Structures are given as C-alpha cells and as structure tokens.
Amino acid sequence: MKNPSRRRFLAVTCATAAAVSAGPTFAKVGSSRTLKMRNLHTGEKLEAAYWTNGDYSSGGLKQFNKLLRDHRANEVTRMDPKLFDIVYKLKEKFNYKGTIEIISGYRSAKTNAKLRAAGRGVAKRSYHTRGMAMDIRMPGVPLSKLRRAALDLKAGGVGYYPKSNFVHVDTGPVRRW
After folding, report:
1. What number of H helices and E strands is found in the chain?
2. Going by C-beta distance under 8 Å and a sequence separation of 6 or more, which residues neighbour residue 116?
3. Where does the record locate the signal sequence feature (predicted)?
4. Prediction pTM value
5. Would you say 33 and 51 are in contact if contact means Cβ atoms under 8 Å apart?
6. What pLDDT, in 10s, does the model give residues 32-59?
7. Is 26 helix (H, G, I), strand (E, B) or coil?
C-alpha cells in the first residue's frame, strides 16, 4: 500500500504547479474589469465595466454588444463575454490606458455574405457572425507585439493583418493565420 502522505504531497505539488503554469490570473473576485473602446465605423466610444463584483455585468455587456453591432444592418447580438476577457488581458499585458479601436465586431450573416462576395477575404463561417470575434488595434502598441501577445494567450484564433493594421481575436479553437 502506498503512503497516503506521499500521495497528498504529490497531489498538492501537481495542483500548485498547474496553478502557477496557468499564467497570470485576474485580480481578486470583486474587482472590476473595464474596457475603453471606439468603433471606427460609427465613431461611438464606450468606457464601461463588463465585469463587476465577481461576475460579468449584464449592463456593461449590453453596452458593448451595442457598440460592436453590425453597423451596416444595425443589428445587435450577444457577444461572447470571453472575447472581452481576451481583450482585457491584452490591455493589461501592455498596461494600455488608451482607447482600443474596433475595426469589426459582430457581422450579420447577410453582411458577411456581401463582404465575402465583394472579395474582402471574409471567411464563409466567420466567428464574427457568431459574436465570437473582434478585429482590434491599440494605437501606440506595435501590431506585431499585439499579435504575439494574443498568440501567447492561447485563448482562440489570432489573425494578423499588418496591411490593414489590425489583429483579429476570437474565442474559437486555438489557431493562427
């Protein structure tokens, strides 16, 4: 029979190693996570907390959903809250105090089809149509560094568009292009 204290030691050691290797975590429960964004197509700006008192804030999320709406169809969807976590982690990584610029958030299926037909390099099953993607930039942060930081998160897809000056982030499977 194995020594129970040895098993406990190994279990605690493995759990501690897993927690440390998971990387930086968010502040304690009860803290707030605020983002400052501007939709480049509509000119609208928003600074709001999407997370307060240990949970996602429905009011803050609704405001961001509206900001990230399909401006062509004026259609709003529920954006994946984990998407805001990705952007927040990127903001924190660079200690970024400026306004995050949104090139694209939600796109309706109809808008996506129109952009695809126009040959704009739009994916047929884009995560934008599911409220799971954003195209962003942080003025003052080199795009290549933003891309690298997004890849390091291993939190979803990362697309790099240096000619158009933005990075795509989504909450789909981890992949890159």
Report:
1. 5, 8
2. 122, 123, 124
3. 1-27
4. 0.82
5. yes
6. 999 999 999 999 999 999 999 999 999 9
7. coil
